[in-house]
Amino acid sequence: MKELRNGDGLVPKSQFWATDQGGHRQIGCIYTAQGLEYDYGAVIFGPDLVRRGDRWVVDPKTNEDRSMKDIDSRLYPRLAANIYWVLATRATRGCWLYSVDEETQAFLTTLLQPTVES
């Protein structure tokens, strides 16, 4: 597989992105992150799992993962929550949480106390 260049330098070969020194600016998914640990990570909550009032609301149709598109709607909330949990727990020193949904982002900020590492 050929390596490509991006604006910030060399992009690692896809199969090595998670362990390559240049992989720290790469975006992965559940399939590439599961079973690995990183010092720092970030999780982007998509529109498939949003917070509305006091509950989580799911929309499987907005998930870009083809294997999740046809999941039974009764199973989807648990599967989606597990995926986000796995992604959020890969980082051992710090993890940023971001949601594309404003209301969900506001909720996420109430859960965590930001800390600054010295």
Automatic annotation (TrEMBL):
It comes from Lentzea flaviverrucosa. InterPro entries: SLFN_3-like_DNA/RNA_helicase. This is Schlafen group 3-like DNA/RNA helicase domain-containing protein. Pfam families: SLFN-g3_helicase (PF09848). Residues 13-101 form the Schlafen group 3-like DNA/RNA helicase domain.
